[in-house]
Design goal:
Strand 4, helix 6 (about 150-160) and strand 5 form a beta-alpha-beta unit. About 35% of the residues lie in helices and about 15% in strands. It has a 7-stranded mixed β-sheet, sandwiched between helices. A 3-stranded antiparallel β-sheet has the order 7-6-10, with no helix packed on it. The protein has helices at about 20-30, 45-55, 70-80, 95-105, 120-130, 150-160, 210-220, 235-240, 255-265, 265-285, 315-325, 360-365, 380-395; strands spanning about 60-65, 85-90, 105-110, 135-140, 160-165, 175, 175-180, 185-190, 200-205, 300, 305-310, 335, 370-375. The protein has 2 domains: about 20-265, Type I PLP-dependent aspartate aminotransferase-like (Major domain) (Aspartate Aminotransferase, domain 2, 3-Layer(aba) Sandwich); about 265-395, Aspartate Aminotransferase, domain 1 (Alpha-Beta Complex), CATH 3.90.1150.10. It is an alpha/beta fold and about 400 residues long.
């Protein structure tokens, strides 16, 4: 019997739409790619993107950055994180998140996760109670949103300043409130595999006038912060302008021009992802040996990727499963790998921490977790073929 084969590329995104291409060509023809290279009285593409994304998020201010990692770093620094401070962060995340914290000189305190891949709120409450803990970077990793009502209770009780990493939750909500609308600041990604694509890029949103003023100067405004239109009044900058260094983390007008038309269709794109996600989720739950965690009905996620676990399987069996899937064209990532591979990593590989904690639950959960991208270049029929392959491989390889 001929084995089924999937032939589409899991890294192939949809092409940039015509309107975005036209805007990009206009910027290229003008030569005015740098965000501050604009005619008098003109709003550049970066400034317009900031206005539009702030409005989309229901926030006062937005700053367009070179990446989500740089946005997180700027958010932490601008909020007041200093060298030696302790910052809480969930242990299941990607390397740029602890990297942004480490870049501030702060100490990282990892928080355990639970079986639905979200942060362990009991462990968070316990670690937040420490007298020297003030900061919390919550990563909504792979689009899984925890109980934000309880998160805010914990933050309020223990005086935690919350900064959200929303790289995977742009367009998502918790109980009808947008992800990124809970913390003092929130950071979003526009890297190729995220919900808007500019190759690299990040967006920082906040309602805090002092924080955004610091972030604008940190980002490298060269005293041209008046050309930001998503900002507080100029007086806020006066006490800061010579005390805040320039880290050159800006976004340029070219990337902003590519992003603005994508923002206009973001919610429609999110619905398209969720159609594919639900096909895969329903199918995976029917495959023996594969487990998808139940999601809270208050969580309106964006299913641009899907995660599942091969519970009670050993390393050899999981590797065999992954290799056989790949042989049939289905590319899966595995967070249980002892070495970081591509866009996956376990906290045990972040050796720069020094003494790594022994988070038993996180290690147990990641040891059997598989991760799969769902690009919009896949159709629902493609999703059904993937499910057929996964079912056949699971039957042949899982014990």
């Amino acid at each position: 019997m001929t084995k089924k084969k999937f032939t589409k590329d899991f890294t192939l995104q949809e092409p940039i739409n015509d309107e975005a291409i036209e805007k990009a060509l206009s910027i290229l023809k003008s030569g005015k790619i740098h965000r501050y290279n604009v005619d008098p009285g003109q709003k550049g593409e970066a400034a317009l993107l900031e206005e539009e994304f702030a409005k989309y998020m229901g926030k006062k201010y937005c700053l367009a950055c070179a990446s989500c990692g740089s946005a997180m770093y700027l958010a932490l620094k601008s909020a007041g994180v200093k060298s030696g401070d302790r910052v809480l962060c969930n242990a299941y995340t990607l390397a740029p998140v602890p990297g942004a914290i480490e870049n501030t000189g702060a100490a990282i305190e990892l928080v355990d996760i639970i079986d639905d891949y979200t942060i362990d709120l009991d462990d968070l409450a316990k670690k937040a109670a420490a007298s020297d803990t003030k900061w919390f970077m919550l990563s909504h990793m792979r689009g899984h949103i925890t109980n934000m009502d309880r998160v805010m209770e914990i933050c309020s009780t223990h005086g935690l300043v919350l900064i959200e990493d929303c790289a995977h939750t742009m367009g998502a909500t918790w109980d009808k409130k947008k992800s990124g609308g809970f913390g003092t600041a929130a950071c979003f990604s526009t890297q190729t595999y995220k919900h808007m694509n500019s190759g690299e890029g990040g967006l920082l949103v906040t309602d805090d006038a002092d924080l955004i003023a610091r972030a604008i100067i940190f980002s490298g405004s060269y005293m041209l912060y008046e050309r930001h239109t998503s900002r507080p009044g100029m007086a806020v900058f006066e006490d800061l302008k010579t005390r805040v260094p320039n880290y050159s983390c800006r976004m340029d007008n070219l990337r902003a021009a590519i992003l603005r038309p994508q923002l206009a269709i973001l919610d429609a794109q999110c619905k398209r992802w969720n159609k594919r996600y639900r096909v895969l989720e329903q199918g995976l739950k029917k495959i023996e040996g594969i487990t998808c965690p139940k999601r809270d009905p208050r969580e309106n996620y964006v299913g641009s990727s899907i995660q599942f676990s091969l519970l009670d399987q050993n390393e050899e069996t999981i590797r065999n499963f992954l290799t056989t899937c790949m042989d049939q064209g289905v590319e899966l990532k595995w967070f249980g790998n002892k070495e970081p591979v591509g866009f996956t990593s376990a906290y045990s590989s972040w050796k720069y921490f020094g003494n790594l904690p022994d988070l038993v639950n996180t290690k147990r959960i990641l040891a059997t977790m598989c991760d799969m991208r769902i690009p919009l270049t896949f159709t629902e029929s493609d999703c059904n073929l993937i499910l057929e392959i996964l079912k056949d491989v699971a039957k042949a390889t899982l014990e």
